[in-house]
Design brief:
The chain is 81% helix and 0% strand. The chain is an all-alpha fold. The chain has one domain.
């Protein structure tokens, strides 16, 4: 496998608190029709896509929270304006 794939595999294994060998064994057990190398690549792609989705969702939730807070601030300011 390419060096970048090995680096990603080591990073994911460390994140999951398992050895790279244990992670490859786990991936290999569920690989289906994939070769082991193909299964590792597919696993890493799914792992990082899910991580990206979680980051994107967290950023969207943070932006929505900021918008709600800003709208609440504006409403409070409007209530204090004399008519």
């Amino acid at each position: 496998m390419e060096a970048d794939i090995w680096d990603a595999l080591y990073d994911v294994a460390q994140h999951r608190s398992v050895t790279p060998e244990a992670l490859v064994s786990e991936i290999d057990r569920g690989r289906g029709a994939y070769t082991t190398t193909g299964a590792v690549r597919a696993y890493l792609i799914r792992f990082y896509r899910l991580a990206l989705q979680r980051v994107t969702t967290a950023q969207q939730e943070e932006a929505a929270s900021r918008a709600v807070a800003e709208n609440a601030k504006l409403l409070l300011e409007c209530e204090t304006v004399p008519m």
